[in-house]
Amino acid sequence: MASVPGRDKYRSFLHDDADSVQWRHGGPPTYDAVNQLFEEGRTKEWPEGSLEETVQNAIKTWEMEISHKVRLQDIKSINPEKFKLIVNGREGLTGEETLKLGTYNALLKNSLPKEFQYYKVDEETFESSHEVFRSAFPRGFAWEVISVYSGPPLIAFKFRHWGIFQGPFKGHAPTGEKVEFFGLGTLKVDESLKVEDVEIYYDPGELFAGLLKGPPISESQTGDEDIAQCSAKTHGCPFQK
Questions:
Q1: Given a cut of 60, is residue 223 above it in pLDDT?
Q2: Which ranges form a coiled coil (predicted)?
């Protein structure tokens, strides 16, 4: 796909009106690392202008805006009056609720008893949830469309999400291995192709199976012991950054 220098070739509205947008971290994010991971690890390379490429980039754009823009009015990829995010059949979240909760918390919220929850959404904030996964996947968490089954206004698709487990996750040491999961989704759009509903269905166990594979990190391990353990398991030790 042809790209314009200095602009992200997979995400719209990243640099448009950037000065008037309220960004969560002061300015537009940079996706160079995760774009490289995506290009190195994707299983499909869709033709430019194809339905599959259009859907893939639309989801990347939506995720970028929800994760990095503070005000609903600045998010151009959705219909703010109608938007709902529904995950695994749970009650839908509005745009404002999704902005407050964050996409990681929205995707990982569940009704299991707390003792069986690997990740406790009620104990996380928007910021802490993103930090947990930035730490575990320092190169980013890439996403691709595997198949598209129908076109607008109700788009049905299959996706793959993956990253390289190079940093600690909730007391578990990194393995340096690829962690991935697959899922299905639908995207309902209006006549202007703005998103009204996103529905996602996937098995969180696929994600956590890879993240909990790392051995527990002892609270007594510090300094050189942490570095030695990481060096033995991965080339991307978070304690050396």
A1: no
A2: none
All residues at 6 or more sequence positions from 194 whose CB lies less than 8 Å from its CB, including other chains: 76, 77, 78, 79
> What's the pLDDT tens digit per position in 107-154?
999 888 888 888 999 999 999 999 999 999 999 999 999 999 999 999
The total number of structural domains that make up the chain: 1
pLDDT number for residue 235? 38
**Backbone phi and psi for residue 200, each to the nearest 5 degrees, phi listed first:** -125, 135
213-220 — which CB contacts under 8 Å span 24+ positions?
213/165, 213/172, 213/175, 213/177, 214/165, 214/168, 214/169, 214/172, 214/173, 214/174, 214/175, 215/172, 215/173, 216/171, 216/172, 216/173, 217/168, 217/171, 217/172, 217/173
The answer to whether residues 157 and 143 touch, using CB atoms and an 8 Å cutoff, is no
Across 17-25, average pLDDT:
88
Contact 196, 188 (CB under 8 A): yes
Q: How far is CA 26 from CA 19, 20, 44, 67, 231, in A?
A: 10, 11, 34, 13, 34
Q: Residue 87 belongs to what H/E stretch?
A: strand 84-87
The answer to whether 139 and 37 have CB atoms below 8 angstroms apart is: yes
Look up the pTM and report it. Answer: 0.86
The CATH number of the domain where 189 resides is what?
3.10.450.50
**Predicted pLDDT at 7:** 84
Residue 169: inside a domain? yes
The pLDDT of residue 18 is: 72
